Amino acid sequence: EYDTFSLLLPDVPKIEGASPPGGGADALKAGQFVRTEGIRRVKPVAFWSGVLKTDANGRLKVKYDIPEFQGAIRIMAVASKDKRFGSAESITRVKSPLVMLPTIPRFLSLNETVVIPVSVRNDTGKDGTFKVQLDLLGALGIDEKGEGDSGQKKQSIKEIAIPNGSEKTLYFTINTFDETGDVHLKLTASGNGETTSSRTDLSIRPDLPIQRTEKAGRITGQTTELKIEDEGSFRPETITRELRLSRLPLIQFSGKLDYLLNYPYGCLEQVTSTVFPLLYLADISRELEPELFKKSNPEALVQEGIRRMGTMQISEGGFSLWPGGTSVEAWASIYAAHFLVEARRAGYYVENSLYSGAIDFTKNEAKAKQSYGTGELERAVYALYVLGRAGKADTGTMDYIRKNGKDRLSVESRALLGATYASAGNTEAIKKMTKGLEDVDRVNRETGGNFNSTIRNRALFLLALMDAAPNDPRVPELVDRLARDATVDTWWTTQETSFALLAIGQFIKRHTQTPPYSGTVYLGDKSIAKFKSDKVLTIPEIEGTEPVKIVMDNGYEEGSAFYSIITSAVPTDKGFKPVQNGLELKQEYRSEDGVPINPNDIKQGDLLVVRTDVRSVSGRLQNVVIQNLLPSGFEVENPRLKTTETLPWATGEKLEPDYQDIRDDRVLIFTDLNDDKWYSYYTLLRVVNPGVFAVPPVQAEAMYAPNIRFTGGLEKPFRVGIKN
User: Fold this and answer.
1) Does residue 404 lie in a domain region?
2) Alpha carbon 208 to chain centroid distance?
3) Of 221, 224, 312, 371, whose CB neighbour count within 10 A is largest?
């Protein structure tokens, strides 16, 4: 009668005779009908003993500390002696006399009211009155009146009478404020001489997209003042800034490295781009990202990247774009092979089968053809370059392309082919191949295929020169041009960023001599740090809105130091601006019968359908990501499960994702779009908690043309009531 499962899943009929949480003869039978994943957060109950030896009677004892858990545990054992094997299994019940089952969201958002149902079951052997206590830590407050009051009270105690063998549910109401970060909830139930408790850790997420801006450059004067642009458009409590200052020109690209290391998706190209620069910038990365590498290190990230690539390699030796894919992504496969070659050269462990498969695929892509399409020719030259770096130069094909296709080669392909000759011993070839060429041609960004772009190709040109002719006078000019690109176009792709960091990182390692300097950083009039040229200065969280001032000591030589400041903030409702550039999206919430919902009339346990319609208005787009952020207190009904309900009323051209990623607080859809055609995608959500929840705007972008993007407008909050 008081089991919250019936509140969450009213469409599942109650099973007569089903046991209460904690065990019972029909527990497994009930589990076949009621899907309970994600309803409450628990630690995994899975243990492995390792290899053990029994006593002379074939017996042994193993002890495990069980986390918060009520239910059945299957114990399995496999035994062996000489050439004989055996196995056995048994079910044991884990059950406490006093059981407490809170229903807590997987995440929270700013300025929300959340109702937390707590079910308490009394199996102590007698009737009793039980005390339930909620303690909060972090940016949360108890809402005693249930009216959204903004009190900062951190503790609430309630009492409830429960007959023996029965279960009752009580409710706590809490509020969030204008502050993100980690919070903690601890619930304790006690009575009849028994006590049980649970602790839940979760995050408060912004209700609107975080706005992130970066400013970087040389320090040219005695004092440099950095103000927050358009400060009034942001919530003051959410504004944070991160300042980096160094003698290294690469500091101007530190925001790009930060972007790479925290990129939220994980296709083959993005995994490769994230770890590739770390091969050459491991030491510098520690200075640029000290917070990130406190618990890990660049070398470990590289090794993990190699492992993840192995999950995307398919039978031909090439790689699919996503885990589980079956078709090869040609350019990205050569790119991954390039990384694996450089990683092995740098001393990292690369499994032989992974490496040889990637090399075999690259050899096949480099084979001479009677005729080449433009994309095929670009891939063939890049494949030849990778083989040259691996010590397997194919001079026959190189000569064939140079003699028969040189006039069709782009600037960066000419440079790559010249660098490949250098790896085979002909160091003069790159000068001849690139004679009279100062920069690459301007091209439109490709959202798939070879991922062409002007910035990427410029970085490839520089990389080839650094490999074969590092003292070429065009090198510093290309470095300066990429630095200007970073200030003009802030929306770089992962591959553009990776190749630029690779090339510039190698340049900087050869050119790091600058005059010494020292100085002080002020927030307003308050000194917050002193610095010298022998160390990178990083101030990770500058709170407050006063201007940041960098004051150099006397004797500073202009241009000797470089800075980067990244500002992150959540906009106010008035300051938030929807974005529509090349993509259009529409989103609506409906009932499971297809009826548009009333945002003020939603009940705990309802099943809702989110219909997302999307189209490209900028031609065919590949590799588009659609991001549906969930309201707090809602959970996804996993579409991969066969038990997910069908929608007979759904019409229109259905979107077929290339890949989907279902997370606690969002659903990510990766797909391609044809020109000007609407596609529809449906997501099923279960309403888990009552409360008042913000509805985040839907977002989408072309990952390899990130200026093509969409961010929806503000929506009315959802008001969810308790199911009677």
Assistant:
1) yes
2) 17
3) 312
